[in-house]
């Protein structure tokens, strides 16, 4: 039985500094449950002074706790214990589910195991990265030695709070850094519990700190703090640009940016079974209510199967029902809040005013109280400058464009601003490879549209979708700075 009573879940204090929860005296931010829109807690917002306390504690832990100098396999052992605690903590799952858009069955079956496995993957990386040796003159030995940065600031969005945190914390901590993480102010509490479990597993106090609050207050204080040596950010393109410029002015800090997307699903006539394809397209734009950076939101389909695929999708879109995230029967996610719902509504309205036709959906579900659920929506008759094609909607809206010839499809697939992800669907290998080469995106999925559940494949966008990679060995390597050493002997 996974369903639970959200009112029976004790909400922790959100700020976790120097190994314990801390009550702060600044501004209180009321926090709502997305699926019924009810206020359920007040969050203490960390002021610039509180952020300073967290960063100082992280810096002290970096220099004094011995975390960075511990044998890497021992760091890995702590992290494996942490992953086990995460996997078995029902309280963590309930905090994630009641406070985010993630239904409890998704949290238990996907989010939590995925989070724990990401931590385990980086635990295994801890002793498997060794820098380089260089051919030099006979009398010299040249080396490149990786070392941790010190304090890394991690900033996360609200759409997958725990797994996003694990993608940032895993590599940074395995490399021996200390971290101060700021979750979204809309989904604050599960990350704090995750940090508490880290201390239970053996992370020294101060190695992992959580600060809470709005971007302009807490986030800004964190990214501009002089002791923060690197920033790992996931969120919108606009905030990413701001963070990049602040990082340049406040210490020339390196940044990893995982930003927005507007990903195409390029489907050719020879893509195979139409029912299977329709399900693939459906999951690609409705998972988490469309609030996924990699959502496949632009269907670009060859005319030979366009009508049949569209009709299948219209039928499937009618099968969704809203529900409370703490009910195990719920499979469809709410919008995170009314503001996000209104954003979806306004882009759909703007798209219609420029000639787009809504084939199904196009509205909020009725009778869901204060919860905001958007109906899966299909739109066609779109020119390439329609707002629904140009802008990231971050809701369950799929635009449909058709093409006759391969070149035409390829031209439609690459977006002028975003390059996060793309799906290519064809049973012709040469065509798939031509498309893979042509599309400007950091990830191309061929004949599938989802991650594989492995952690070795990195993820990251091109152009305005970001800089650098999360996951894979690349994220671990990027959690180090590299010192060149030349020894004469
Ligand atoms: P957002 O940019 O509004 O906020 C993200 C985080 O940044 C939040 O914690 C916020 O408080 C913080 N923030 C805001 N202003 C800040 C500032 N001045 N200084 C420091 N921190 C600040 O994004 P969101 O609405 O929370 O998330 C949705 C966006 O995230 C979408 O665009 C989505 O595509 C993107 N996203 C990208 C990926 C990826 O891997 N590429 C993954 C998930 C989400």
Automatic annotation (TrEMBL):
Keywords noted in UniProt: Oxidoreductase
InterPro entries cross-referenced by the UniProt entry: Ald_DH/histidinol_DH, Ald_DH_C, Ald_DH_CS_GLU, Ald_DH_N, Aldehyde_DH_dom
Domain Aldehyde dehydrogenase: 26-485
Signal peptide start-end: none
Keyword Oxidoreductase: yes
Residues forming the catalytic site: 258
Entry similarity comment: Belongs to the aldehyde dehydrogenase family.
Protein name: Aldehyde dehydrogenase
Species the sequence originates in: Candidatus Pantoea multigeneris
């Amino acid at each position: 039985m996974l369903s639970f009573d959200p009112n029976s879940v004790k909400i922790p204090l959100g700020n976790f500094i120097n190994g314990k929860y801390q009550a702060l005296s600044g501004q209180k931010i009321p926090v709502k449950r997305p699926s019924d829109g009810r206020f359920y807690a007040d969050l203490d917002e960390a002021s610039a002074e509180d952020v300073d306390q967290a960063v100082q504690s992280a810096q002290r832990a970096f220099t004094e706790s011995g975390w960075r100098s511990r044998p890497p396999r021992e760091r890995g052992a702590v992290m494996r214990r942490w992953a086990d605690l995460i996997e078995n903590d029902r309280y963590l799952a309930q905090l994630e589910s009641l406070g985010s858009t993630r239904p409890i069955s998704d949290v238990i079956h996907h989010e939590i195991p995925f989070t724990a496995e990401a931590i385990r993957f980086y635990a295994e990386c801890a002793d498997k990265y060794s820098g380089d040796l260089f051919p030099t003159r006979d009398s010299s030995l040249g080396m490149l030695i990786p070392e941790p940065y010190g304090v890394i600031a991690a900033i996360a969005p609200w759409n997958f709070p725990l797994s996003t945190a694990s993608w940032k914390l895993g590599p940074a901590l395995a490399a021996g850094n200390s971290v101060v993480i700021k979750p979204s102010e809309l989904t604050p509490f599960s990350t704090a519990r995750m940090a508490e479990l880290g201390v239970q597993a053996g992370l020294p106090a101060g190695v992992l700190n959580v600060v809470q609050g709005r971007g302009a207050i807490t986030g800004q204080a964190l990214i501009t703090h002089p002791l923060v040596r690197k920033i790992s950010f996931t969120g919108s393109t606009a905030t990413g640009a701001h963070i990049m410029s602040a990082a340049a002015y406040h210490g020339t800090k390196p940044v990893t940016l995982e930003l927005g997307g507007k990903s195409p699903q390029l489907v050719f006539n020879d893509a195979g079974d139409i029912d299977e394809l329709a399900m693939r397209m459906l999951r690609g734009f409705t998972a988490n209510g469309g609030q996924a950076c990699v959502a496949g939101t632009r269907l670009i389909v060859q005319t030979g199967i366009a009508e049949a695929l569209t009709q299948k999708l219209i039928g499937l879109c009618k099968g969704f029902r809203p529900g409370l995230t703490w009910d195990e029967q719920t499979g469809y996610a709410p919008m995170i809040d009314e503001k996000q719902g209104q954003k979806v509504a306004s882009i759909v309205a703007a798209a219609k005013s420029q000639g787009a036709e809504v084939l199904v959906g196009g509205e909020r579900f009725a009778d869901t109280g204060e919860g905001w659920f958007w109906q899966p929506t299909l739109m066609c008759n779109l020119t390439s400058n329609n707002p629904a094609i140009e802008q990231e909607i971050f809701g369950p809206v799929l635009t449909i464009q058709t093409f006759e010839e391969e070149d035409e499809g390829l031209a439609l697939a690459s977006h002028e601003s975003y390059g996060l992800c793309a799906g290519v669907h064809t049973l012709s290998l040469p065509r798939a490879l031509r498309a893979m080469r042509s599309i400007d995106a950091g990830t191309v999925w061929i004949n599938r549209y989802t991650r594989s559940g492995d952690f070795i494949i990195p993820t990251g966008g091109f152009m305005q979708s970001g800089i650098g990679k999360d996951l894979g060995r690349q994220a671990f390597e990027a959690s180090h700075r590299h010192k060149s050493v030349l020894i004469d002997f």
